[in-house]
Design goal:
about 80 residues, mainly alpha, Non-ribosomal Peptide Synthetase Peptidyl Carrier Protein, Chain A, about 50% helix
Length: about 80
């Protein structure tokens, strides 16, 4: 499974579990408009750490917080490499 598909799967799974209406995922979708709350994002980050083995937010490098879904995916794609 690609990083992009794993990220998308986690967004969809967490939205379902948290009974949130997830906006259609596209690279341009602003995370603040995705329909998720801070708990949902915390769950996504924790699950991605389990599945991908990385947490780009907990690294020694300075990380610019992603604004869009595309930024979020790109952050994980770079961290996995």
């Amino acid at each position: 499974m690609s990083v992009r598909s794993e990220v998308a799967a986690q967004f969809k799974q967490v939205a379902t579990e948290q009974q949130r209406t997830l906006a259609p995922l596209s690279d341009e979708l602003k995370l603040l408009e995705a329909g998720l709350d801070s708990l949902s994002f915390a769950l996504i980050v924790a699950r991605l750490e389990d599945s991908l083995g990385v947490d780009p937010f907990n690294s020694s490098a300075t990380v610019e917080f992603p604004v869009t879904f595309g930024d979020f995916v790109s952050l994980y794609e770079k961290a996995v490499k």
